[in-house]
């Protein structure tokens, strides 16, 4: 391994904005301490951030957190029970506090896991694979006394294991992330608008995202739209859903409600009731994201 490929063992600045996909961030924060860190420069083209989440001593054993607006990308999860990679998901992810005292890992950028996977990402969508099959060096971390390690030791181990795979950076990955940023920050409402902005045919753009990201442009547009909607609704004493629907480009209220429920997993009224109550709905065992993922791996 050359000096340029060596990870920076101490250069993991902590990120501050990382709660955007959590349905009820206030309740989550009362149960878990979540910290996210920048990857090394070597892994920056592929990894959005590393994360370490430790359960608080006085947690609610009935707490269920829903990461329903997850990024359009793969994620690496490492727990004392093992390590796995979760492919892109269009559905809710559920975390039960009583399932794990600690979880750590890496959130890849859209398209960022493709150089590790070396296959169409659509083949990994809604699936879970053992991390060791793609990242052999991660097994030593999952086999260790994970709960006894400090953050810098964990971060260095993850970064080192990923770097050892020697993924090849591609211009397409940077382009994909430019497209995603455009969608998220420019209030884009249609696939055709994205294709026009980047001088591509809709078909070519959709194929690129299916191959490298694993989800379509339309879902990414909907995710960005409802991320903004839920963020705004949480700030309102009594959200006016009719106005919110109109401002979001919906002329049909029922269409807005269907799309909201498809992305968030709850109706607008159920969502705001959940946030106001600061209680998370209980989940069945089969809904436990981490438990189910480990069983599949």
Structure, described:
The chain is built from twelve helices and nine strands. The chain has 297 residues and is of the alpha+beta class. The chain folds into two domains: 3-169 and 284-296, no CATH class; 171-277, Orthogonal Bundle (Arc Repressor Mutant, subunit A). The strands form two sheets. The chain has a seven-stranded antiparallel sheet with strand order 1-2-3-8-5-6-9, sandwiched between helices. A two-stranded antiparallel sheet has the order 4-7. A hairpin with a 2-residue loop joins strand 5 (75-79) and strand 6 (82-86). Helix 5 packs across helix 8. 38% of the residues are buried. Residues 1-5 and 280-297 have low confidence and may be disordered.
SSE order, one letter for each helix or strand: EHEEEEEEEHEHHHHHHHHHH
Q: Into how many domains do the coordinates divide?
A: 2
Strand content: 5-15%
| Major pleated sheet | 7 strands, antiparallel
- The helix/strand class is alpha+beta
Structure summarized in a few sentences:
The protein is an alpha+beta fold and 297 residues long. It is 39% helix and 14% strand.
């Amino acid at each position: 391994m050359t000096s340029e490929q060596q990870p920076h063992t101490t250069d993991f600045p902590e990120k501050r904005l990382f709660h955007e996909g959590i349905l009820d961030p206030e309740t989550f924060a009362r149960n878990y301490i979540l910290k996210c860190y920048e990857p090394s420069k070597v892994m920056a083209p592929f990894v959005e951030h590393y994360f370490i989440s430790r359960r608080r001593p006085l947690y609610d054993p009935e707490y269920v957190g829903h990461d329903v607006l997850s990024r359009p990308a793969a994620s690496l999860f490492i727990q004392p029970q093992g390590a796995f990679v979760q492919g892109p998901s269009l559905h809710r992810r559920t975390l039960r506090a009583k399932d794990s005292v600690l979880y750590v890992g890496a959130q890849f950028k859209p398209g960022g896991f493709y150089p590790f996977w070396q296959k169409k990402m659509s083949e990994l969508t809604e699936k879970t694979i053992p991390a060791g099959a793609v990242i052999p060096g991660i097994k030593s971390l999952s086999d260790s006394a994970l709960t006894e390690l400090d953050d810098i030791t964990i971060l260095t181990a993850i970064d080192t294991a990923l770097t050892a795979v020697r993924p090849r950076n591609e211009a397409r990955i940077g382009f994909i992330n430019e497209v995603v940023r455009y969608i998220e920050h420019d209030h884009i409402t249609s696939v055709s608008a994205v294709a026009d902005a980047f001088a591509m045919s809709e078909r070519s753009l959709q194929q690129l995202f299916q191959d490298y990201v694993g989800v379509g442009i339309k879902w990414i547009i909907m995710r960005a739209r409802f991320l903004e909607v839920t963020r705004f609704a949480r700030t309102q004493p009594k959200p006016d859903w009719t106005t919110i629907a109109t401002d979001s480009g919906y002329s049909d209220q029922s269409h807005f409600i269907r799309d909201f429920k498809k992305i968030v997993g709850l109706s607008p009224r159920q969502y705001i009731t959940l946030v106001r109550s600061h209680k998370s709905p209980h989940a069945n065992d089969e809904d436990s994201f981490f438990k189910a993922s480990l069983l599949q791996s």
